[in-house]
């Protein structure tokens, strides 16, 4: 994935001064020193690099900006000191406070929203600051949690002993070892580590806070601006690195309660707990501390006015008696316009119904409720979602006199969670379920099929020749086709079935409720697959190009949960490959024999690896002649005889080598051997100066180091580059045309020649054919074979010969097996030939002896 590929250090160290705001040469990487303290999953050190949510995000930004990150491990307190002294350039996971704003520089866009929570041993719970009376609280030194709790407990006159620690792990360890009663941490760290220390989350959560990357004061503006740029851009895209990081780290450790409840509890921190707890305190102290009461009331008013939650009090007649500043701002009215009003005066009719129902439950039953509510002002269409806690207010006799409510706006949090959910379970391009959700749905379908005594089916759908369209018209065209195909197929998919994008141009359809009789169920699947192929085959138009997509479909039935979901998909995929072998645009059902074929391919793959290690491969050379029967070249063809004496056809092992990537080491070996043979023949009477052609696979050509590899082999062996000819297939050239031309041009400068193999079978465009630095066109043997009986093949041969003449390219025909074919080719103007009529592929020694015989 994108994340894992970038979470490594750049090893080139570049010295510079004035890190923030300075300028340096464009080729130098900017080194950014990052303070790393252990606070997983937000920030941690991993293999010497910064990791965790903040670390992954910063590594992504660094990759975009070409920064070199230098991780500096430190404790929290030491990290702050290093930042103050300018010894590090960034410190992740820092909350803004008035004091810190005077010490550090912050960017603008929050990187993460978090909140604080109390953690205790099992059997102990803390609901509010009142419950901290007489408790020993382990808290991170100089943290916002410490400052907040000191302020709250002193304001409420709660006697609490704070034990300062230099890491959150130390706080948790203090509770486990008994030197503290409770520990305070951010909920991400707590959920990640609580179970390891035998701790549980308490009910008390507080202080929702935005977190940032901090920089030394009066510096870091340029870094901060770039961080803001990427955060804003990525937050707007559901499949961006931002949500990938959140999904990656949130997926490892689940919260003890649903994530949406945690958002609510965080929002209640500065409101409900303080308000209710303080009311309890006031009642205890009202008789004896009248002066203190007034002071505390003022203190409470300031607190509630600055809380980012809607706080309100209603009477039993459902009229508002109190609203805080946030409620006033949300309603867009003055306090006087709200007090004494009911919900129907302020909210939409639909909102009023929901609010009144929960209010009545609280007033009539005395129930304390926590629910999600949607609120829309009467004068607005903006729907906001709140997590609301309501509980009754009682007088001294216990009679209910009204209710107090605290509503935290979680609209943006829910949107974020929905983006993460879609990223985790849905394909971002088509909107279809992804592999993860597909496997879940398939397992459910298998269980239902077993219980209902009916069949289900898995259809594996792969677009034919999609890569060609993608390479010729571009990825945008390919993406648009995938979206259109998914939309078309959904027209035929029932609501109870699941259509998923499996990857690339592959889709999987899970069908439920098929007939209990297997033959009938197969007929139903065959009919469905036919409808899907018809829908897919509708022409696709893009930028004056028309493309008729087709699909090969593999299918397998199931009736129960005996087979793992992964096996069912694998079987359907094997059947799809068979459909392609049968000619594409077909449907094929899985047969166990296909599994045997898969095992055979796996065995062949292992054999190729072993053959490369034990030098079981050898090169044979097939001669090429001109019209005067003069030897003009040799084509190097690989042959394989195992150590057991078994000869394996190239038609069997070459496709396996290409599909497994083994063609790269095999291709390198072939090139090396051919060049060594060129050197050996440089002093041979008949073979000196004769060029050797080597087939190059797409995997080789599109490797970034291909040109360097060819040059390296030529230099190592000392072979003459002008005697080396590389044969490229026509279909290979349609991919990355510009890069292909550039690579060919670099090798042409060294003297290497190029031949276009199997010409006429691919998708060549004359527009770029003229731009290719070619020396030769090769007529495919398929056209030569039926040259004398098929007028179409004859016409193609004449066209290729004429094209070669117009482009000043040599033309050679391969697969020439009869003298009649050779004479016909001569009549069409072809002057060069290769085939069994002229000579079979031979080992070097046999070739030399054969040439002596010809002489």
UniProtKB/TrEMBL annotation:
Q: State whether keyword Transmembrane applies.
A: yes
Annotated TM spans: 260-282
Q: Residues in domain PAC?
A: 370-422
PAS domain: residues covered: 296-366
SMART domains for this protein? EAL, GGDEF, PAS, PBPb
According to the record, the signal peptide region is 1-28
Q: What class of enzyme is it?
A: hydrolase
Alphabetically ordered keywords of this record: c-di-GMP, Membrane, Signal, Transmembrane, Transmembrane helix
Superkingdom of origin organism: Bacteria
Instruction: Fetch the InterPro entries from UniProt.
Output: Biofilm_reg_signaling, EAL_dom, EAL_sf, GGDEF_dom, Nucleotide_cyclase, PAS, PAS-assoc_C, PAS-like_dom_sf
Q: Which CDD domains match?
A: EAL, GGDEF, PAS
Q: Where is the GGDEF domain?
A: 454-592
Q: Gene3D superfamilies under this entry? A: 3.30.70.270, EAL domain, PAS domain, Periplasmic binding protein-like II
Cite a single GO MF annotation: cyclic-guanylate-specific phosphodiesterase activity
E.C. number(s) listed in UniProt:
3.1.4.52
Annotated ranges, domain EAL: 601-855
Name this protein carries in UniProt: cyclic-guanylate-specific phosphodiesterase
